Every structure is written in structure tokens, then in C-alpha cells.
Amino acid sequence: xxxxxxxxxxxxxxxxxxxxxxxxxxxxxxxxxxxxxxxxxxxxxxxxxxxxxxxxxxxxxxxxxxxxxxxxxxxxxxxxxxxxxxxxxxxxxxxxxxxxxxxxxxxxxxxxxxxxxxxxxxxxxxxxxxxxxxxxxxxxxxxxxxxxxxxxxxxxxxxxxxxxxxxxxxxxxxxxxxxxxxxxxxxxxxxxxxxxxxxxxxxxxxxxxxxxxxxxxxxxxxxxxxxxxxxxxxxxxxxxxxxxxxxxxxxxxxxxxxxxxxxxxxxxxxxxxxxxxxxxxxxxxxxxxxxxxxxxxxxxxxxxxxxxxxxxxxxxxxxxxxxxxxxxxxxxxxxxxxxxxxxxxxxxxxxxxxxxxxxxxxxxxxxxxxxxxxxxxxxxxxxxxxxxxxxxxxxxxxxxxxxxxxxxxxxxxxxxxxxxxxxxxxxxxxxxxxxxxxxxxxxxxxxxxxxxxxxxxxxxxxxxxxxxxxxxxxxxxxxxxxxxxxxxxxxxxxxxxxxxxxxxxxxxxxxxxxxxxxxxxxxxxxxxxxxxxxxxxxxxxxxxxxxxxxxxxxxxxxxxxxxxxxxxxxxxxxxxxxxxxxxxxxxxxxxxxxxxxxxxx
Length: 601
Description:
The protein is 75% helix and 2% strand. The chain is mainly α. A two-stranded antiparallel ribbon has the order 1-2. The longest helix is centred in the N-terminal third of the chain and has 117 residues, at 2-118. The chain is flat, with a radius of gyration of 52 Å. The relative contact order is 0.08.
């Protein structure tokens, strides 16, 4: 009965505990619900913060874009400001230089206009017919001299005016004054003026003085125009003769001006450069030409190739000259050649009168540079590029030897007519002929007395003297005999090597009798195969001698046929090479005869 009461009491307590647990679970569920509600609130807050962050990011991106736009605008403004400043500076400097130009050189424009009018043939006719008063001419020229006492054209103009008035003494003083200011330009001006007025004798005398005043290492563009006029005999025969003498003197290195430049001995000034030029005209041997000879003569080939190419100098030079001067060395008969129309002399005189002085040229170049800056809106790099491209590339002086070289070999590099280029050829001919002779002589020196040919370890020497007969058949027979002897020696060296036969037989019988019967199955097969191999080797050594001899003879026959064919081809190519070499050397006489009518100064 007590046990039953205890059980009921325990069950009651258990039920109370379960009830407490259920009540606690209910309270926990209420708290969990509250927690879930709080979690939902937190999630909603996070979403609001995320949205706010996205909005901030968008605002920051917009701010960055605005900053970049502002920076680009500011950079463009700074750059444009810099360009505008450069334009303003250029405009101010250009305005200053323009004012200075008119102040310093404005009178020269009028002096040039007066000179251009005085040297015109119509002016001379007007003066001689008393259409124009000579006193007016004198007054105008004297006024130019007073306004421009340092400009050579002013006294030169006064000298022309004095000539019209037959005032020799005053004309001499004016000419001396002009020559003191700029001898080269003054002498050329008087020469061209006298030529235009029909006095060829005096024009030639002034041309001689002009040529003597030039530096052959710095010939201006005036000389190129004048050379065309002289070559066309627009200034007369005497001027042509003086120019030819001056060019010959310059070519020999005889300059009246102490320029400090080293001049070579007579006839050698342009020698090294001409030799280099003629070497570039040489024929070049291709890899396929004379291939057999190239393969058989070894290191000697480079000597033969260089000498053969040098030998072609005369022929290639003559071909080039005939192409450049199809009418021959002297061209048409001088007596039948029409005198030029005077266009080159007119151009030379106009160019000389309009030519700016160094101080004018420097200021004009600076003004043009500033104009380019203004045109390109202050972009200094673009302005400098445009200025450099607009500068005349042919304004630089040219050396006399360079002029001759370009006139003869690169006519597209120098603007000269055919008569002037022919004068250049006459001036350079002596050095050109000597250079060709020197290269041909070097070619002869490179030709060895004998050429060594080697095929299949057998060599022979071939004479290069045409008087010595080349025994090609004998050489081929000797080569064939040599290879046959080598083949026979190698064939006779093939014999039965009895020590190998005996050793292989003894080892095989020993293995078969004493080893094979006393080993296990696996080892027995190995030693059996070894024994068979030994007996096979002994049998091959005993019976293969005829086959080996036959193979050596076949290889020898093949080698003999190939060597004979190679040697025969090499000998024929050697004959062709030597014949071409001699023919090329003989072309030197044709080159000499092509210009044999030239009279050396």
C-alpha cells in the first residue's frame, strides 16, 4: 500500500515537472517570437542602411565624375591658356620684328626694285634713246647708296648707272665699294649684267673674278643656276673656258681661299670617294653562279670573287655613263650646239637680286617661325614641325666634289641640266679614270698565278695565265686514277680476320660442350643463343669478304663518277670565270677611249 502511494506521488511530481516544462517552453516560445520580431526589425534596418549606402555610392560616383570633368576642363583651360599665351607672345614678337624689318630693311626692297629696273634691257634702250635722263638715273642710284651704304647692291646699282653715263672713274669706285662689301655677289652681278647688256668679254672677266672668290667647299645655290647658264654658253665662250679652268683647279685642290680645309694632291682629291662610288657599281656574284668552283677552291674563293667583282668596274662604269650621257662624252658638236635662250642667266640675275642678306634671312626665318606658331594656335611642337618641313632643303651650301659626284652619278639629287652635268663629267673625268685604273689594277693583283682545286681529298693547281694550256682531260684522268687506286687499296685491305674466326669457334665449342649441359633451362637457352651467335659471326667473317670487296668497289665507282663530274664542272667554270675576268679588265680600254677626246687641263 505504501508502494502504491509512493508511485502516485512520483507520478504526480513527474506531471508537475512536465507541466513546468510546458510552461517554460511556452515562455521560451514567447521570447523566441519576440526575438524573431526583433530580427525582422534588424533586417529591415540593414536594408535601409544598404539602400542609404547605395545612394551614397551613387553620389560619390557623381562627385568623382564631376571632379574628373572639372579636372579635364581645368587642364584644357590651362593648355589653351598656355597656347593663347604663346600666340600672344608670337604676335607681339612678330609685330616687333615686322616693325624692325621695315625700319632696318625697308630701303633694300626699293634698292632691289631699282637694280631690277636698271639691268633690264628696255631701260638701256630708253637711256640710249634719251627717253630717260641719265641725271635721274644717277640721282636715284646715289640716293640708294646713301640710304643703304652697307648693302652691296646699292654701290653695284650705282656702278651700272655710272656705266650708262660713261663715268668710268666713278663706276670703278662704285664697283670697288660693292666688291669690298660682298665680292662674290658683286662679281656675279656685274658678270650677269654685262651679259644681259651684250658685253660678253667683260662678262667673262667678271665671271673669272667671281669664280676666284668662291670657296669650293661651300658653293651656294647661285652657282648651280650660273653653271647651267655657263654650260649653255649664255655668257659666252670665254666665261665657259674660265669656268672649266676653275673647276679643274678646284678638282686638283687649288683653292685661292685659305679655308683651312685639307686638300689632297693633284688628281687625288676625290680619289677615295670615287673609288667607293665605283665599287658600288661593281657586279655582284650570286650564290648559284660558279657553285662547283666555289665548292672546290676552298678559302681561295673569296679572293677570286673580290677580284672578279673589281674587274667589272670599267664595264659597269661605262654602262652607267652611256646611260647618263647618251650623246657621248662631248655630246654633240659644240659648233652645232645652239646657244641657250638666256633663261638660266635671267633666273640667276633675278635670284641674285632678290636674295636676302644673312641678317635679313635670319630675321625672316624667325618671323616665319612665329607665323607658324600663330597658324597652329600656339602648339609649339606642331609649329616647329611645320616650320622645318617648309624650310628649303636645297638652301644649304654644297661642296664641289659632292656636286660633281651627284651630277654624274645621282642627277636626281642636284638640279642641273645636261650641259652642266657634262661639264661636271669633264671636270671629274681625270680622277674617275684614275680611280677605275686603280681598281682594275687591284683586280689584276688579286688574280693568283694558280687556282687550287680539291675534290675527294685530291688536289690540283690550275694556271690562270691564258698562255698556259689547261689540261682538263689530264686532270680528270689523274683524279679518276687516284680514286681507283684508293678504292683498290681499300678493297685489298678487306681480308679474313682469322683470329676472330678461331676465337669465335673456340668460345662457341667451349660453351656448347662445357656450359650448356650443366645449367638450368633458362640459362641453357641464353648460352645456346650465345653459341649460335658466335658460330654465325665466325661463318660471316669467313664468307663475307667477296661481298665487302664488291661494296667498296661500288662506293669507289660512285665516288669517282661524282668527283669527276664535279671536277669537270669546276674546270669549265674556272675557264669561264677567268675569261669573264679578262674580258672585264679589257673594258678599261673602252672606258678610256670613250673619253679620250677630253683635254686635261
